[in-house]
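Predicting structure from sequence has reshaped protein science. With that in mind, we have picked out one protein's residues alongside their backbone shape tokens:
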Amino acid sequence: MTENMVVEAARMTPSDIFNASVASSAIGAAWEAGALDELADHDKLDIAEFAERQDLDPSAVEGMFQALASVRIVQRSAGMVFPDVNFAEVFRAKAFYHWLSRGSAALFADMPAVLRNENRTGQFYRRDSSAIAVACRDINANFFDPVFHGVVDKLEFTKIADLGCGSGERIISVLRGNPDTTGLGIDIAEGALSVAEEAVRESGFDDRISFILDDATAPAPHAEFADVDLLTSFLMGHDLWPRDNCVASLRRLRAAFPNVRRFLLGDTARTTTIPDSEIPVFTLGFEVAHRMMGVYLPTLQEWRGVFEEGGWRLVAEHRVETPADSVIFELEPLAS
């Protein structure tokens, strides 16, 4: 391939960029409506029949599939829809688009206002915590959980507490494989806890899992913390930062959970070596969103520099393939 051919292949036209933006919202909608799962299971979908069965407007559904077809996620033919060349990869990453188009839509829509210093006081941005919890559940299941369960299967514990538990799926998945354990979820978002409580009811683990509405970065003392021996936190560790706050939070967690034997901290760090034109899926949205919100994202190297000062020893790093620069830090408490 010549240099000119490489440049041409990398070039996106204004219509490419615009159509991809519309398709991004359509991916989130198609997943929420059940269309992506149906295509993944059956390799075809009748648009009119699907719209009637799901009580959806048929013209609007046609428009959703038109948006997906514009970027070759699906093909449309004679009222039918079929997976196209980009379907499999997009299906695996579908929660990233849901995170963007549903959970973070208001934040990006308000970007012009969020940029202005005069507006950056108090709670100056909007996000949908319930939608983000749903997206993070799928992100965890597809990318973090295979690594996470490989670590957990080697540990001995009786009670797990999940900081920023979101949808509660992590605790549920752990209890499925450990019948003698109990779980505790802590989250500051009532919307996320509503999702989690419903998931627990559906799982039948009501008698083994409970939840606490609290700030996972600085939880108040709770009697339920005393017998926790496995602590986990995923996709919210960056909320502990900047550095001084992170060290203080790690110390508070060390004191709040006196009998913890392992702390599994999984998060996505700020990338430092990826060129702007080569940023992979999710990474750009994740990093730009946190810049807009004024939340500091540490690098992997910065993470490594806070653990001992915060009262924890880094036992191992378990790398996660996607998103970029994602890792599960395996920590144990330092002797008091």
Q: What stands out?
A: DSSP finds 15 helices and ten strands in the chain. Residues 129-152 form the longest helix (24 residues). The longest strand covers residues 312-320.
